[in-house]
Amino acid sequence: MIMNAGGKSEGYWISTGKEIIRRPRAAVSLAVILFYLAVAAWVYTGWRVPDWETENFEMAYRPPSRAHPFGTDIYGRDVLAKTVYGTRVAVSVALTASVLAVTIGLGLGLIAGYFGGWVDELITWLYSTIQSIPYIILILAFAFVLQDRRFSLFGLEFRIRGINSVYLALGLTGWVGLCRLIRGETIKHRDREYVVAARALGASGFRIVARQILPNVFHLAVITFSLGFISYIHAEVILSFLGLGAKNVPSWGVMIDDAKLELFRGVWWQLAAATAAIFFISLCLHVFGDAVRDALDPQQRGEGG
Q1: Using an 8 Å Cβ cutoff, are 211 and 126 in contact?
Q2: Tens of pLDDT along 200-228?
Q3: Can you list the pairs that 43-48 forms with residues at least 24 positions away whose Cβ atoms lie under 8 Å?
Q4: Which residues are registered as beta bridge partners of 151?
Q5: Buried b (16+ CB within 10 A) or exposed e, 284-297
Q6: Alpha carbon distance 82, 276 (integer Å)
Q7: From the CB of residue 200, how many other CB atoms can be counted at a distance below 10 Å?
Q8: Hey, is 29 helix, strand or coil?
Q9: Could you tell me if 82 and 49 are in contact, meaning their C-beta atoms sit under 8 angstroms apart?
Q10: Across residues 91-120, what is the average pLDDT?
């Protein structure tokens, strides 16, 4: 608990949130991020979403205008509508991959750091092996292998195709850094007084990990989640650009891929729309991630050594 100016105690996460919002750049960045999330949710609901599918060849390659603020593509489709729909693809991929990667990295890091022994050696060998492979090659390999695959689980048949392969490819490769970080922090915490006291009272290993150690390292997962969100958006763009991502739906990577030939005709607006969308969300996530890191750092907050 943290004492506020009025002498009342408030929760750690509440005080952290106030510390972040108190910074103008972080507050503006958060507003932009929430706007992107709102657009993605709006497209997901399908309620009065701009039409990007209707083709009108008479309107092909029209420059930005009042009717089409971002112009039209080769098929006469509205580029603004494609950019809006691409927001859903980018946000959904980044959100799903971040949750998957943080869950795996946090879980394996806690287990390896607390229990040690052969469990620690196995997990360390696993993330060391994955880390030795260049990241972009690893993502491409996972995305290619997982694409259009069928498998059965508990009698149910699943098919991985299109954007689902990107979810898994990014989530299954992005947990290594967090796992190594959590493992190191857990090793430091497992011999401290409060953990030794819980062990003396007969608490099980998993209970100690969940109730004692996890709250003290969870801020690292929050920071990793906020900063990793950016890299997953960029990775989705790269995979879609290379033809391993979204299929038959607009995404920023597909738009950039389409625009590479349009530039020879002087058609720049589709490339500009996609890159601008990527730029603003990346910039705001960077600024907000730095603010989260500083707010959760005890030394920055004056709460620790």
Answers
A1: no
A2: 888 888 889 988 898 888 888 888 888 88
A3: 43/84, 43/85, 43/87, 43/88, 44/88, 44/92
A4: 158
A5: bbebbbbbbbbbbe
A6: 13
A7: 8
A8: helix
A9: no
A10: 92
